[in-house]
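Researcher: Please translate sequence to structure tokens.
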Amino acid sequence: MFETTLAGSLPKPSWLATPNVLWAPWTLTGQPLQEAKEDATALSIRRQEEAGIDIVSDGEQARQHFVHGFLAEVDGVDFDKKVRMGIRNNRYEADCPTVTSALKRRRFVHEKEARVARATTARKLKFTLPGPMTLIDTLADGHYGDRVKMAFAFAELLNQEAKDLEKLGVDVIQFDEPAFNVYLAETVEWGVPALEKATEGLKCTTAVHICYGYGIEANIKWKETLGESWRQYEQTFPALDRSRIQQVSLECRQSHVPPELMKLLKSKTVLVGAIDVASEKIETPEEVAATLKLATQFVDPERIQACTNCGMAPMTLNTAYAKLRALAQGAALARKVL
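Model: Translation complete:
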């Protein structure tokens, strides 16, 4: 019960990138940068192991951003032709690259860091990719003229990448879909089918991460508008439960998500977010255990993994790894109690 894992990203060391910000500028260039990315990936995994994490991640150390790290190696995306637009249903504005022609993956995008990660650990390895809906929500469309068509074009590229990751020995491939908490009807109508297309033919474990975002100011302010009961999962979980996706990662700690909504995931492994990524306060093992114990009222303990609410990239290194240690200690405590 209660294997521990994380949503994906971790802070980067200051010798690799500017600390404590998203879109952190790299401190190096050329071959030294590539070497530093590989070193940071290996170090991140070792620190996760030391913290007691069972299913480790590359920490997204080689990517500036969880979406744009993948887009950087996709033909058809023009980074010089940017459009100022609202994303995540206008939660915030961003200068978004434009899709100007048919999409095509230039190469195996995350091969280098995936090889390093797999060689570094004997534990189960998770690798994260952006989901199709979240990808298209972060781009201006100057070619397809149809959001669904563009999403399925990305799903094909993601499927190619996922199959390459599987061949390298990745155990869990997780697709990050924060857009699923924003475009609820579209998620059911075509978002989940596009996600299934991205996982087609995979034999490894598949997961989807759906949260309320990093602990940055724009997300915190948005959460304040959601009221005392965040019921977005209620509309999307039934569709996910019918899907081929095996695991669902959700935000629980310090959120207003009614915990009984987890009952809607009748057949899935549920990654219970027991670590708040919007606060520097370190959870106690008892607080983590309490979150997991609450989840067992609605999900069989054997189907629960202990996880973070979201990625931890903007945090300080010390805070992030202290939270991971608390996660592992809390899961061990909950395991002992049950």
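Researcher: Any highlights?
Model: The chain has one domain: 3-64+109-131+157-337.
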